[in-house]
Design a protein that fits this description.
The chain is mainly beta. It is built from no helices and 14 strands. Strands 4, 8, 9, 12 and 13 form a five-stranded mixed β-sheet that branches. The chain has a four-stranded antiparallel β-sheet with strand order 7-5-10-11, with no helix packed on it.
Amino acid sequence: QLTFSMPQPGGSDFTTGLDQSLTPDAMLAVLYNCKRGDGNLQFNFSHVLTGLRFVVNNYSESDLLVYSIKLQGHFFKKVQVDFSNTVDRYTGSYILYDNPGGLSLPAPAEDQAGTSSDSILEEEYKKYIMLISGEGSYFGEDVQVVIDYKLGDSDRKTEYITRPGTFTPSPGVRYTAQLNFVGNAFVLQFVVDNSEQWENGGSDDGGDVVFE
């Protein structure tokens, strides 16, 4: 039985800030029934965690100001390769974007389908959070996307959005969570990146794979 544990200490509530930079890109390789006559061991590593990043799209006819985005919840702490149940969690919030002045996404021009944070924000805001995914409960319990925004002339609002029922994250897959503003409606959509292909974990010479 092999166990990987997330390094975030977490806290008692969602006010605890979580640091994604502490999370290693954990990988796992398994070879079954290998014999001496098979020659050198050829490991094919796969990613243990699920990658998730966020983008805001404005498809409405009003200007949009986004003040903050965060992902909060009681996240899975450990994953075991024999899929044994675990009750360990860590609690807190990943701060994806926070700016008192707001991120301005103007209403799209006539020749535009929409305006996107991907075309405005720097690369540091496009990085992936790596999380443990599980069946039924997403990345843990009470996991929500929290967005603080102002659309057009309306009042400033804070929305708490849970995952769509059609989204079931898988280990080793990277997703983009699209926070889409369409008219007065707000839609959260998860899109698989790059046809579900994450870079391979080849290991002929060990590379940057760290054995612990």
